[in-house]
Structure formats: structure tokens, C-alpha cells
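USER: Please consider what follows.
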Amino acid sequence: MAKVMISIPDDLLGMLDAEVERRRTSRSALLQAAARQELGLSRRSRADLLADLDEVSGPWTDQTDVVALIRADRLRDG
């Protein structure tokens, strides 16, 4: 794999680093994904898509009583 040196304005680098942190990835991975997307090569593997779906479809642990919230909201407006 080739290594390259590029110049990026400080403010753009700051935004890039914030996105790296948010995604819990690396600069290289984020820049590779951006280049693939820009070149129209951004198809993700089936395994990656399924892994993302598994991550967001985990068990729901929120025990909020939605009916109670609706009743309380109606009583407040009533």
C-alpha cells in the first residue's frame, strides 16, 4: 500500500479528526472511504452492512412507559 503526503487546511483537518473520533476509525480509513465515494466506488460489502445492522438492532433496554408519557402529556394539555 502506498503512503502519500497531502496538505489540508487546519480547519478541515480539525473537522476530519472530529469525524474520525465520532466514527472511531482512523484518518486513513476515513480518507479512503471519502475517496471511494467521490470516485463512485463506495459500495460496501454485505458483511459490513450486516455488521452495522446488528449493531443498531441490539436489544432495546429503554424501559420507558410510552403510554404513561402520552397520558401525562394529554393531562398537561387538557
